[in-house]
Protein 1
Amino acid sequence: MDKDELKKKLTNEEYHVTQEKGTEIPFQNKYWDSKEEGGYTCKVCGAMLFASDKKLDTSTGPSGLQGWPAFDEAIPGSIKFQDDNSMGMHRTEVVCANCGAHLGHLFDDAHAPSGKHFCVNSCSLDFEKKA
Ligand SMILES: [Zn+2]
């Protein structure tokens, strides 16, 4: 999909986050405290990325990571990692393996069962309720 098509398909915020590696505002996004059962898909291409049973509670936990949807594990093969040295720090960027959309970042988190914390923007995601 080219840039113009994506701009039509996505809202300004969705475009900014998924294509320009933006970050939405914590606690004021769609899925951060959602507890519904189902799967989270890529906003851009629809690929299944995360299962709700791997979702972390981000009303508590490491400060700075609170208020965004977060997951302990991704669906195997659904995401790719890239080095991100922006903002004067080294982080691991998480992108959709299928279309390359920016999703968020991967952090170490001692509170998470796997020790890893996928911090994801709600506007990079869609939700499919469990049937
Ligand atoms: Zn995608």
Protein 2
Amino acid sequence: MAKQLIFALTLLVTIGVFAFTINRIISYFRFTKANFPIGDLGKRFGVMINVAFCQTKIFRKPIIGFLHALVFWGFCVILIGSIEMIIDGLFGTDKVLKSLGVVYDIIMASGDIFAVLVTISIIVFLIRRIFLHVRRFEGIEMKPISHIDANVALTLILLLMLSLTGMNIATIDYQHLRGEEVAGVYPVSAWLTGIFSGVSMKGIYIWYESFWWIHILLIFIFANLLPYSKHFHVFMSVPNVFLSRLEPLGKLPNMDHVTREVKLMLDPNTAFAAPAGDEPVERFGIKDVEDISWKNYFDALACTECGRCTAVCPANLTGKKLSPRKIMMDIRARMKEKGPGLVKHGREYSDERSLLKDYISVEELWACTTCNACAKECPININHPTLILDLRRFLVMEEAYAPGEIKTVFSNIENNGAPWQYSPEDRLQWAEKLEVNLK
Ligand code: SF4
Ligand code: SF4
């Protein structure tokens, strides 16, 4: 009974702290824009199965991708065992799901095998991060705290797996000593039971209880650390993939208000087809976090800082300042800075700083070629180019700022109806000497 009481209190504190953090994050979402409609649930479900659960994009780097996939699949299986532990802890039961029979055996056996596979994967990840200087993990945005954050989370996962295996070994030994049938199948742990040989039944029970508590407390600590870490993607990546942008990557979204103005200029009758009662535009493009869509913020929270986007970015590879990973990290950091002020003082709050310029420089933005390599490579379908485009839109439409070459293009479009410096009448001159009918 005492164990149940202590467990219930611990669970209550865990849920309370977690709810506080999530509530704070949700309150920031209130200040983002709603302009990312969701439809086509069937297609979204397919993308989620393919990209999130089958981890297809991760496999573009086969070895490290496979190890990452093992960790993800391992988490999914082990989650069931964690739910069982919570039920046992609350109601004083022992392996409550064992009534599932053969299904239980399969779940436990998978969890036992995955615990070892995840342990091996995490050790490889830690060695890579600490001893090998992988270029993908470097960059101006990767401060020492980013590396510490990653290593702490990996170490916690390692301890979770070791405590799970320890718990499995102790449970087999304890039930054997009591002459009971072991609940569940543990192929790897059964092989390791020798490590407790010579320990008394009481001693093994103490080991079992210790591993049980260490494991569940690590889960509770881990769950509450995640929202403050890049490993928040453990929660966010699957829903983020479900909420992916479904249009072809090359299709850059138009601005509705501008599209309508252009249509009106081309054909005034369109005015009657234009939706009535449209709100006037507060601001063209994105200057600060209250201009981004809720999906942009969701992307930023889901970003794993893996650097796959930056590793394929032609601008970054050719020495420009742009790093698509940094754009996501900047959104997260800026919302963390401005969010509390917005919540306290409302949308009008200003701290005289902004996402654009104080975090993301103009130089970074104009280095983007909108090639979409970053969005294609991102394992959780984050879309950077549309965001970069909106930041540029603010510069062009609100501040009349664009690099000299682009200003020439703008004036050519205005004067000649084309980006080139030629009159529209001269457009087909190049073909005049060819024997083709130009009529
Ligand atoms: S779209 Fe821009 S940010 Fe993304 S890879 Fe291409 S150049 Fe880099
Ligand atoms: S945006 Fe995507 S690819 Fe880039 S660091 Fe984040 S998760 Fe990785």
